[in-house]
Write a structure and sequence with these properties.
Blueprint (H helix, E strand, L loop, with lengths): L2 H19 L4 H10 L7 H12 L6 H14 L12 E2 L6 E6 L18 E6 L5 E9 H4 L4 H22 L17 E4 L4 H11 L7 E5 L1 H10 L7 E4 L2 E4 L2 E5 L7 E6 L3 E14 L3 E5 L6 E5 L5 E14 L6 E5 L4
Parallel strand pairs: 1-11, 5-15, 6-9
Antiparallel strand pairs: 2-3, 4-14, 6-10, 7-8, 8-9, 10-15, 11-14, 12-13
């Protein structure tokens, strides 16, 4: 575990551990933290955050630092924060996207200077949306010496998976979640020749290739590379990414195995991703899904001697620009 993720797991995880062990009572949580004075190297930071919570100061930089440390665990896991060329915008602010720029001309002596009119598209406002990770742990686990790292890492992985799933599953958005960056993309039916399919997608693509990237499932990317050994930069791709037709390839388990998409990243606007909140509950009743049957049933945290943990991140995105800013190869079974 690198230094960045270690800091996140201790501060965010120990904050969760303290308020979880105390069943959400900030005064009892403060007492628990006091007992760890000689065990926790970041004792003073955890104490300050729990102390601020006990005083109802949830908006202070003290509790915000806990959210920041949690985000330090989420960002390396979520592909969203690894992508270049994204446009960062504020929430609830009208945005305008330039779809056609000004033109320049060569003009002879005494000649008329032509005029050009840039074209713009009004995108409207990005609303505040949130992705929520939920986990349930036993009281015994929460009191274990490694609970701080376990619970923080688990919640971070859940939030990152939720973000990437919405980013690449191809679905339309709704009141709860943003649309996938591949929703509404032009499509190319896959054949048995992935390199030829990529060239067909490129022929339909209307975005800026210098700010674009391919997205594929790791297995799909590995199979594309295996089908084109020795192709050089034209197809130097594997499970961890690479380049296809000289364009960078990003891989994620969230991308459907049957789709390979080319997206102009400069057309993606992202808001938020800078605020996170952590909460616990020992009295909630949660709908928990049975992994064997797939059915959900109400489960009482109190009756099962468990604690519910919640990590919440405020984030939203959208894709602007003309049709053809995203093209997907569909039905890829390479």
């Amino acid at each position: 575990m690198n230094q960045l993720s270690t800091r996140g797991s201790t501060l965010a995880g120990r904050y969760l551990q303290a308020i979880g062990v105390a069943n959400g009572d900030p005064i009892a949580a403060l007492g628990y933290v006091e007992q760890q004075q000689h065990r926790w190297t970041d004792y003073s930071q955890v104490k300050a955050a729990v102390d601020a919570l006990s005083l109802g100061q949830t908006g202070t930089h003290l509790t915000a630092s806990v959210g920041d440390s949690f985000l330090e665990l989420v960002r390396p896991r979520a592909l969203l924060w690894k992508l270049p060329h994204l446009r960062v915008v504020p929430f609830a602010t009208d945005a305008i996207l330039q779809t056609a720029g000004a033109s320049s001309y060569w003009v002879g002596e005494g000649g008329l200077k032509p005029m050009s009119a840039p074209a713009f598209q009004r995108l409207g406002k990005l609303a505040r949306r949130k992705v929520v990770g939920l986990a349930v742990v036993s009281n015994e686990l929460l009191r274990s010496s490694r609970a701080d790292a376990i619970v923080a890492d688990d919640l971070a992985a859940a939030c990152a998976a939720g973000i990437d799933a919405a980013l690449f599953d191809g679905l339309a958005g709704d009141d709860d979640r943003p649309a996938s960056v591949t929703h509404g993309a032009l499509t190319v039916p896959a054949t048995a020749a992935p390199l030829a399919d990529a060239l067909a997608a490129l022929a339909l693509f209307k975005g800026n290739l210098t700010t674009s990237a391919w997205f594929a499932h790791p297995q799909t990317a590995a199979r594309i590379g295996a089908k084109n050994p020795g192709a050089g930069q034209a197809c130097d791709v594997g499970a961890t990414g690479g380049r296809l037709l000289g364009i960078e390839v990003f891989t994620s388990e969230a991308v459907p195995k049957t789709a390979v998409s080319l997206v102009d990243l400069s057309r993606i606007e992202v808001a938020g991703g800078r605020d996170a909140e952590l909460r616990t509950s020992a009295n909630a009743t949660l709908l928990m899904t049975d992994p064997d049957t797939g059915t959900a049933k109400p489960t009482s945290m109190f009756q099962t001697n468990c604690i519910g943990l919640l990590g919440e991140i405020i984030v939203n995105w959208r894709v602007g620009g003309p049709a053809g800013s995203a093209v997907s190869i569909t039905g890829a079974s390479y």
